[in-house]
Amino acid sequence: MKPPLEKNPVEKTPAELAAEQAAYWNGPGGKGWLASIERIEQGIGDFGKAALTAASPRPGEKAIDVGCGLGGTTRALAEAVGATGHVLGVDISEELVASARSHRVPNTTFVVGNAATHPFEPASYDLVFSRFGVMFFGDPVAAFKNFQQALKPDGRLVFVCWRKPDENPWGLTPVRAAAPFLPPLPRPGPEDPGQFAFGDRTRVERILKEAGFTALSFEPLDQMVFMGKTVADILASAGRFGPLARAFAEATPEQIEKAKAAIAEALKPHETPEGVRLPGACWLVRARAT
After folding, report:
1. What is the DSSP letter of 194?
2. Contact 145, 151 (CB under 8 A)
């Protein structure tokens, strides 16, 4: 059964979408990310490592880490580029950037900024990198044009993003199980930002080409995603962060109880001594500035 969706969504402008994302990541999204960071890192850490390997940052290079969050990938990039290089971590969330700055990593700078409008120094960077940070742009073409202009002529873009929901049981299974008991989930528009907004390869290719990137490469990256140590742990944080957060916020206690029971039933077969893991599917994307 597919999650119930609201009909006839109101089409929003890129500015409205960007404002919504800023409000979310400076509100419940940022707080939920901070509260769940240990589980999140266990779930997506290996995808990030694969992307960092593909990016191949080298000593002396300048890099931008897009959607840097708490700065884990920024620190990894900074270690690779060394004292003669520099990494700029950019995120829309003031709370996450404040946490990233607190680590005081040498040869890094962290800024709160909108990817589409931040004044990057033109033609100055060797690498633009992102681990799951590019799917939330209100105006993705404008954002990638901004990155393209920030890169040197031979600069490279490397990012990892989720493929479509039906290829990602880790995300879809709990939503499908809970949906019959919760208020309808909003139907995202075809150009709306969100966790799986870059799942359609054709759309991503169009965005990157319009932004001026060339030599596009899409590599499927499939791994098991750690969701929690036990089903009980997952239920304890259900609704705090992720696709179900809005539905849980609008649901009654009785609805939430029934939804959690359905999630538990759906996830129980996947519980092992090593935790609850379900398949995840990503694109590892590479491109050149010219």
Report:
1. S
2. no
How far is it, in rounded angstroms, from Cα 24 to Cα 283?
25
pLDDT in tens, 234-281: 998 887 777 788 889 899 999 999 999 999 999 999 999 999 999 999
Amino acid residing at 116: A
Cα atoms in the 13 Å half-sphere on the side-chain side of 208: 25
**pLDDT per residue as tens digits for the range 22-34:** 998 999 889 889 8
Domain with residues 14-166+188-228+279-288, CATH architecture: 3-Layer(aba) Sandwich (3.40)
Spell out the domain ranges in the chain: 14-166+188-228+279-288
Q: Which of 108, 136, 283, 251 is nearest to 184 (CA)?
A: 251
C-alpha distances in Å from residue 126, one per residue of 44, 85, 86, 154: 25, 10, 10, 7
Tokens of 153: 């002529």
pTM above 0.70, yes or no: yes
